[in-house]
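USER: For my understanding, would you kindly supply a protein sequence with its structure tokens?

ASSISTANT:
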Amino acid sequence: MNSSYGRIFRSILLCSLLALFATAQSKDAAKKAPEKAAAAAKKAELVDLNSAPVNELRELPGIGEAYSKKIVDGRPYKGKDELVSKNIVPQATYDKIKDMVIAKQGTASTKKK
């Protein structure tokens, strides 16, 4: 009789542990889902160096009035790394904004703002 109770107890314990493990995994997945959505939203909201107005460029960290004007005056850009190679912004400033900007082709504004 004792051995059947022991088996039942072990089975219940094993099921409980598996349920806890499954719950922990689903909570981790639920936590990661908003992070993935935020990353996708950020990517969708990249600032285009070739078309963004001065006021939008100024919202980037380290980019003020002078740098935003230099960015507009240096258009068009083939790649965002040209901000450094064309001496538009220093490397340290570029490092702050490189994940927030993009240089789309064919979007450069001909008007200087």
About this structure: The mean pLDDT is 83. The longest helix spans residues 2-44. The chain has five helices and two strands. The CA atoms of residues 47 and 101 lie 5 Å apart.
